[in-house]
Amino acid sequence: MDAKENAKPLTEIRTRLGWPQVAMAQAMGLSLRAYQALEAGETPIRQIHLLAAERVSMHHACIQGRPEITTGTIRSECLDLAAMIRGTQKKPATANRAGESEDTNAGEAALSV
After folding, report:
1. β partners of residue 95
2. How many Cα atoms sit within 13 Å of 91 on the Cβ side?
């Protein structure tokens, strides 16, 4: 896969938002030239770039009330988070310091007593 092909997810997120490159660059905290180099494949896209773009799209989807402008992955993760907040989905178990599995809901219940 060539560098320009690697830039597709970044470009897709920006176009879903309906933004020019300058707006996406500003939202991600990059200069216009640095952002253009990412989309052109001149600079390798790192995971942090994709995470920043996804975060920007999630933020603006919430502001605009338009979940369709985010990627499917972000929508799914947001739905999972909302379900946990509503209490309709059990939180995943976490490992304690001894490496044993611990139910995070039980720990939360103990704190609220």
Report:
1. 101
2. 16
> Which tokens sit at 69?
């402008």
Sequence ranges of the domains in the chain: 3-112
For the chain, 113 residues long, give each residue's pLDDT as a single digit of tens. 677 788 899 999 999 999 999 999 999 999 999 999 999 999 999 999 999 999 999 999 988 888 888 888 888 888 888 888 888 766 655 544 444 444 444 434 433 43
CATH number for 3-112: choose from 1.10.260, 3.40.50, 1.20.950, 1.25.10: 1.10.260
